[in-house]
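Customer escalation, tier 2.

The customer says the design service returned an amino acid string that "doesn't look like it belongs to this structure." They asked us to rerun it and document both sides in this ticket. The original structure tokens are below, unchanged.
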């Protein structure tokens, strides 16, 4: 039954869903119209807010590009290839491929949202090696495994809440930080993530198509790549060397230079985690990926080639990040984001407010598909409303109520990614490289994932203890 449902929605979304860049343009117009109608913003204010926002995420965009390319460089290294060979020997059926990719992807997402790149590499390599794997469903497995990310170690909202002097404390909305024991390590979040580790792999397995409807990796390749013989990074590096001995090749292929840089980087990494505990942020994650990638590729030239391959298709991120930042600017500078949050919160009680926050998070995420960006827009009104609703609660109960409501926003942010194609930009350069696959080919399957995730998230934010 689920196989037919998945195939039905996959076909519909292929017909209805435009390219992700067109999606960003349409959302820009929709946000502008909503600002006109709901907050009475003038066209000039809307355009100015759009332009101000356009450049707000440039630093974040560069961090995103580095997460993508450094992760991919690791994934095409000899150690990663050995791991994939080891895994491929044990994963021999399509059912096992769907289950393993989704499960491992959930684990990777809980460690860092940037590790969706590793999930994509794992899926692509297994699809090459195992017959009768539907490549579109497999790509949907990669994206579905992204659902738990905001309840993981790189979750923007819980990390901001636990950051001293964060913007909510500076605005005097919060008196002190909220520890991760009430967010990431709460029973609610732990049960939620465990549920996804079980439910999502099972769901993707149940949506597998019958053999006659399978579209394999080889079927998706474009003509240019269909018969191309793969060249390893090491082989390409060797082909660039001169026939006789020379200083340039000696430096390019120096293991000693690479090891010295790796040791310097390892010093910084060890010092960071020893001094700050498991403090994961984009900067240290990117730095870790760079150092590990250099270690895996052994020489500077090999790492340069790996990075060149990884950088070959990041155009989607470069183009679309400013447009989504522009939408964020419209919602922030016209007051539209706060107005939406305040309007929905007006229907709430203490019992229903976390669920309403979940819906707010999901709705705003469609326009601002960045957890940190969304929290910057709605965080203050969400917590102010929580404090008003929980005025009769004890201090400890109020803090727990704020924590639950904040995590509900985080869950909503992760939830509607399944119908928002923006984050496909983070892994499509890997999973779709050399193929004809587009985001619309997978969104029908992830729409079914969205429906299942709704019930998991709704149950957790409404009834489970913090």
């Amino acid at each position: 039954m689920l196989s037919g449902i998945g195939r039905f929605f996959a076909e519909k979304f292929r017909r209805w869903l435009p390219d992700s860049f067109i999606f960003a343009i349409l959302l820009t117009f929709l946000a502008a119209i909503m600002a006109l109608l709901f907050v009475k913003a003038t066209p000039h204010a809307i355009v100015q807010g759009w332009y101000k926002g356009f450049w707000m995420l440039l630093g974040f965009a560069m961090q995103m590009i580095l997460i993508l390319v450094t992760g991919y460089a690791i994934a095409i290294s000899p150690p990663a290839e050995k791991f994939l060979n080891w895994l491929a020997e044990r994963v021999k059926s399509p059912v096992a491929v769907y289950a393993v990719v989704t499960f491992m992807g959930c684990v990777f997402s809980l460690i860092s949202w940037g590790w969706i790149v590793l999930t994509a590499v794992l899926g692509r390599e297994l699809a090459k090696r195992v017959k009768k794997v539907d490549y579109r469903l497999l790509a949907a497995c990669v994206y579905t495994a992204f659902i738990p990310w905001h309840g993981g170690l790189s979750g923007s909202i819980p990390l901001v809440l636990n950051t001293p002097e964060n913007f909510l404390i500076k605005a005097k909305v919060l008196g002190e930080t909220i520890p991760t024991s009430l967010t990431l390590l709460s029973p609610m979040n732990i049960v939620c993530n465990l549920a996804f580790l079980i439910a999502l792999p099972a769901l993707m397995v149940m949506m597998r198509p019958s053999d006659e409807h399978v579209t394999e990796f080889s079927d998706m390749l474009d003509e240019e790549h269909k018969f191309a013989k793969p060249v390893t990074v090491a082989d390409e590096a060797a082909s660039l060397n001169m026939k006789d001995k020379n200083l340039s090749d000696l430096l390019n292929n120096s293991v000693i230079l690479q090891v010295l840089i790796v040791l310097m980087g390892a010093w910084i990494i060890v010092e960071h985690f020893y001094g700050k505990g498991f403090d994961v942020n984009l900067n240290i994650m990117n730095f870790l990926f760079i150092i590990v990638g250099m270690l895996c590729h052994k020489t500077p030239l090999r790492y340069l080639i790996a990075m060149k391959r990884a950088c070959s298709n990041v155009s989607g991120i470069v183009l679309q990040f400013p447009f989504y930042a522009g939408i964020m600017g419209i919602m922030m500078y016209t007051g539209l984001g706060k107005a939406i949050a305040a309007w929905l919160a007006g229907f709430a009680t203490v019992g229903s407010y976390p669920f309403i926050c979940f819906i707010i998070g999901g709705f705003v995420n469609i326009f601002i598909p960045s957890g940190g960006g969304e929290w910057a827009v709605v965080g203050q009104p969400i917590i102010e409303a929580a404090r008003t609703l929980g005025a009769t609660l004890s201090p400890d109960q109020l803090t727990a109520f704020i924590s639950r409501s904040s995590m509900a926003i985080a869950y909503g942010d992760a939830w509607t990614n399944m119908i928002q194609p923006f984050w496909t930009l983070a892994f499509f350069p890997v999973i779709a490289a050399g193929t004809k696959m587009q985001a619309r080919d997978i969104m029908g399957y992830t729409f079914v994932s969205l429906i299942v995730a709704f019930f998991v998230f709704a149950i957790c934010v409404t009834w489970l203890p913090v």
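Tier 2 assessment: The sequence is consistent with the input. The chain has 25 helices and no strands. The chain has a mean pLDDT of 88. Sent an explanation to the customer and offered a walkthrough call.
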